[in-house]
Amino acid sequence: MMNRRSFLQAASASASLTALGAAAAAPADGPVRRVGLIGAGWYGKSDVCRLIQVAPVEVVAVCDVDSQHLAGAAELFSQRQASHNAPRTYGDYRTMLAENDLDIVLIATPDHWHALTMIAAVEAGAHVYVQKPTAVDVRESEAMLDAARRHNRVVQVGTQRRSTPHLIDARKNIVEAGLLGKIAHVDMCCYYHMRANKKPPAAPVPDFLDYEMWTGPAPLRPYDLLPHRGWWRSFMEYGNGIVGDMCVHMFDTVRWMLHLGWPQRVASSGGIYVQKESSATTNDTQVATFTYDDLTVAWQHRSWGAAPDPDYPWAFVLYGDKGTLKASINCYDFIPRGDGEPIHQDALFEREQYPEDLTEEGIELQAAPATRRHLIDFLNAIDSGRRPVADIEQGHISSASCILANVAAKAGRSLAYDPEKREITGDPAATELLQRPYRAPWRHPAA
Predict the structure, then answer these.
(1) pLDDT tens digit sequence for 142-183
(2) What domains are defined for the chain?
(3) Model-level pTM?
(4) DSSP E strand boundaries for 303-384
(5) Fewer CB within 10 A of the end CB, N or C, for the chain?
(6) At what angle do helices 368-384 and 42-54 cross, to 10 degrees?
(7) Are 206 and 315 in contact (CB under 8 A)?
(8) Is the CB of residue 39 less than 8 Å from the CB of residue 70?
(9) What is the rounded CA–CA span in Å between residue 276 and residue 283?
(10) Are the C-beta atoms of 373 and 41 separated by less than 8 Å?
(11) Can you say whether the dihedral through the CA atoms of 280, 286, 292, 295 is positive or negative?
(12) What is the rounded distance in angstroms from the CA atom of residue 58 to the CA atom of residue 93?
């Protein structure tokens, strides 16, 4: 049974999300933008399909080092876009950028390829939508910010929680409305069993994969499994583990909700404590602390065991003296302290508006509305010349802060990064860890 107050709260929330949906409409009569995609795996295809849904675009070029990915993406885009033309396909992003005059480039490669491809795309004159995190080291991320500003291109980072309808509602109607009171602590977590726990032997590289190009500037590991989707994420050679993959989303959302910039200090510790049988090099257990004035933002992940709150296994919790806000990609719950009514809000789905979502392989249905709005914000930023909601600078702060957590764990001490001097204050040895070595012949953008 629903009492009158609960009914009114639910009606108000529904109206709020409806208004957010209406505000997310993209102009249908704008210019047909020429689009290229670098990284045609799971999320690359998903991002392009969301873009086709909200704007007049022509996907003219697709790049991937896996010929099977290329063929599948070209077929899918020819079915989805209005012209039904199949895009040209490439195995080298440099050739694609040289041969095509592109308005927009979407990048959905593994993390170790984000920096070089994004910088090359803005140098070629394109605006860029790049998946999170920005980079695998802080110097790469700095170079990406510099390139975007130098070439005056709009770069949106795929931290689409900033465009998630129910989280926008929570930011406005819970946090900014003052329902939490003084917020002095935030917990963030991920307890998904997402770390690969295999130790396969070396194997021949399949004919359809250019493994040398896939590896690029990263260390060349023996080929053991097809790296796509989840396997590569278990290796620090290509990213920053679960902190770089999952914490960056929650930390970026918390910063956006609370209007936070760079943390004053970052500390972290962790290791491979349980899942020792795997060849994976990422931590199965880690904690990190991001310190601000009168505020501590804490992260914890475990890829084993149970989540303390099964309803919020990947989430953040804002603690205020007047109440608590739990939030995830699926919903949020406001729990008042003392008087007041709890407020619950579920994620917005758009199944009726976009029925093609229901048959798309691998789609995250609860994330699709956020991605559509994130892309619309990106397009509007291009048209207006303003910064997008997840501008490269915001993505840089969130991504680099998470990378700094791993640097702190490796150094064994807390760190204070100075974004103006671009150094770790009073710690030359830790400052050296801000840049990873590149495998020849690839050259680091900060070199």
Answers:
(1) 999 999 999 999 999 999 999 999 999 999 999 999 999 999
(2) 164-347+395-432 (3.30.360.10)
(3) 0.93
(4) 314-320, 323-327, 331-336, 343-346
(5) N
(6) 60
(7) no
(8) no
(9) 10
(10) no
(11) positive
(12) 18
Q: 242: which residues sit within 8 A by CB, 6+ positions away?
A: 190, 194, 195, 282, 283, 286, 301, 303
Structure tokens of 327?
């939030």
Q: Give the C-alpha separation, 176 to 265, whole Å.
A: 25
- Tens of pLDDT, residues 321-333: 999 999 999 999 9
What amino acid occupies position 91?
A: G
Task: Enter the tokens of residue 35.
Answer: 């689009």
In contact, 232 and 238? CB cutoff 8 Å = yes
Q: Are the beta carbons of 20 and 169 closer than 8 angstroms?
A: yes
Buried b (16+ CB within 10 A) or exposed e, 408-438: bbebeebbbbeeeeeebeebeebbebbbbeb
Query: What does the buried/exposed string (b/e) look like for 318-331 if buried means 16 or more CB atoms within 10 Å of the residue's CB?
Result: bbbeebbbbbbbeb
Beta bridge partners of residue 373, listed in sequence order: none
Give the count of beta carbons closer than 10 Å to the beta carbon of residue 206.
Answer: 12
Among 318, 308, 269, 381, which Cα is nearest to 167's? 318
| Ranges of the chain whose pLDDT falls below 70 | 1-29
CA atoms within 13 A on the CB side of 68: 7
In the DSSP assignment, the letter for residue 433 is: T
Structure tokens that stand for 55 in this block = 């704007």
Alpha carbon distance 105, 382 (integer Å):
13
Quickly list DSSP for 366-381.
TTHHHHHHHHHHHHHH
Tokens matching residue 99: 């041969």
